[in-house]
Design goal:
elongated, alpha/beta, Rossmann fold, four-stranded parallel β-sheet, binds zinc ion, binds adenosine monophosphate
Length: 495
């Protein structure tokens, strides 16, 4: 099927097959169709800003940035919301330990997050709402849940009444029996049922709090994403993303809350979850202490290589972090840059003059189409980035074999534009000069041109054609090249 959106993207052709995404809710791959025409409304659970994110968190950010970029490449308009959790137990503990306020702690780590986001080439979100800016929305949602008979207040706390909501477990597949055993839920004597979860928590001394119909307090964590998702995207919206650790209880509870407040079966059409970044096969996490911060990894490796590493595996599979993997990603980025530099260098040569046509022109031309089709086919299969990268490497082999025999600049330009636009989906930015190979190429060209002009000037002087000799000197002077006639011949320099 021809995509109706191809015309919006000048360098793409069209997608033959539909995009399919794995929906955690249906446990199957589904054809992707936004709820509202061409507009994709997407919400991704963002960082709790109490500390530096670890490189596992960064995987989640990079994965959903790539998904967003592919949707945009496919012609969709994407509204992308990702929040900052700026009040919770971890924030309060850390702020107390550092002797600063919770807002001061949040401000510090939001700044750190933005630096990291920039280095990882994450596109800025449409909006980064902070939980504390939406307390009113959370209170309103909680009131609706109580009004609809799915929540109850007790001594300043408010809980969601799981026994009144029969679809609980719809996302995670966790059975009510398993939950009732209390093994996976917080034990709290105020709850009517161990499965119930907090929508609002009564104020405790020394904690930030807000006025509410139930007295001063603060919202439960799950409330924030439901309320902010509804505020910015409405209900239901298209995509909700986060790590697999958020399936239960966070996203399960979000579904329950939205059902309770807004009467929807699910607030989201497609639930997408990334696999874990692991160390020796164990999930990287702060609580286990087996983590590297995104900051230290970015300080030690090429930023583009870090980004490539984070999207090099399929997003739903685990990805093991180790130095070898990062070194390999560094080499891979070099391979991509070298191919781009080779194409840029060839373009400069072809712009100097005509070259006889060869069969390499049609070989590279065909390879460009094969690359684009293959890349799109793989990305349409639930964002299969390793498959898309394999297509890219097949193409790079053709570039390395044939570029020196290409005669048509238009083919080289198309190869460059295609490569740059496709790797950009993965968050790799090649638009700027990278290794400098093309810079040295143009320097050589400039030097050769100036020396040729000086030779012509010498010839003009030998034949006493002073007008031509002066014209060359004056015109070079206007371009900033000064000539100094010495007894050993003319020398030049650029001002
Ligand atoms: P947090 O700051 O803990 O709320 O986490 C931010 C995002 O990182 C969430 O989507 C988590 O699910 C995700 N996440 C946490 N640990 C990992 C990990 N080891 N690998 C991949 N994603 C993770
Ligand atoms: Zn969330």
């Amino acid at each position: 099927m021809q995509s109706p959106f191809y015309a919006q993207n000048p360098v793409r052709t069209w997608v033959d097959d539909m995009l399919k995404v794995y929906n955690t809710l249906s446990r199957s791959k589904e054809e992707f169709e936004p709820l509202e025409g061409n507009h994709v409304r997407m919400y991704v659970c963002g960082p709790t800003v109490y500390d530096y994110p670890h490189i596992g968190n960064a995987r989640s950010f990079a994965v959903f940035d790539t998904i967003r970029r592919y949707l945009e490449y496919s012609g969709y308009r994407v509204t992308y919301i990702t929040n900052f959790t700026d009040v919770d137990d971890k924030m309060i503990d850390r702020a107390n330990r550092e002797g600063i306020s919770v807002p001061e702690l949040a401000a510090k780590f939001i700044t750190e997050y933005r630096k990291i986001a920039n280095e990882l080439n994450l596109k800025p979100a449409t909006i980064n709402p902070r939980a504390t800016e939406h307390i009113d929305d959370m209170i309103e949602m909680t009131e609706l849940i109580i009004k609809n008979g799915l929540g109850y207040a007790v001594h300043g706390d408010v809980y969601f009444d799981v026994s009144e909501y029969e679809s609980y477990g719809i996302l995670s597949g966790i059975s009510p029996d398993e939950l009732s055993s209390g093994a996976r839920v917080e034990v709290d004597s105020k709850k009517q049922d161990p499965r119930d979860f907090a929508l609002w928590k009564a104020e405790k001394p020394g904690e930030p709090s807000w006025e509410s119909p139930w007295g001063k307090g603060r919202p439960g964590w799950h409330a924030e994403c439901s309320a902010m998702g509804k505020h910015f995207l409405g209900v239901p919206f298209d995509i909700h993303g986060g790590g697999q650790d958020l399936i239960f209880p966070h996203h399960e509870n979000e579904i329950a809350q939205s059902a309770g407040a807004y009467g929807v079966e699910t607030p989201v059409k497609y639930w997408l979850h990334n696999g874990f970044l692991t160390i020796d096969k164990d999930k990287m996490s702060k609580s286990e202490g087996n983590f590297f911060t995104a900051r230290e990894v970015l300080d030690n490796f090429d930023h583009q290589a870090v980004r490539l590493f984070l999207v090099s595996g399929h997003y739903r599979q685990p990805l093991d972090y180790n130095t070898d993997a990062l070194n390999q990603a560094t080499q891979t980025v070099e391979r991509i840059r070298n191919a781009v530099d080779t194409l840029r260098g060839r373009l400069l040569i072809l712009e100097r003059g005509q070259v006889d046509s060869t069969e390499s022109d049609s070989i590279l031309s065909e390879a460009i189409d094969t690359l684009r089709e293959g890349f799109e086919r793989e990305m349409n299969d639930d964002f299969n980035t390793p498959g898309a990268l394999a297509e890219l490497f097949t193409f790079i082999k053709v570039v390395n074999t044939h570029t020196s025999k290409i005669s048509k600049p238009v083919v080289v330009r198309k190869a460059l534009a295609t490569m740059i636009s496709l790797v950009n989906i993965l968050g790799i930015d090649l638009s700027e000069t990278s290794t400098g190979a093309d810079k040295s190429e143009s320097k050589e060209l400039l030097k050769g041109t100036i020396e040729l002009l000086l030779e012509l000037r010498e010839k003009a002087r030998e034949s006493k054609d002073w007008d031509t000799a002066d014209m060359i000197r004056d015109q070079l002077g206007e371009l900033g090249v000064t000539i100094n006639d010495t007894k050993d011949g003319p020398t030049w320099k650029i001002k």
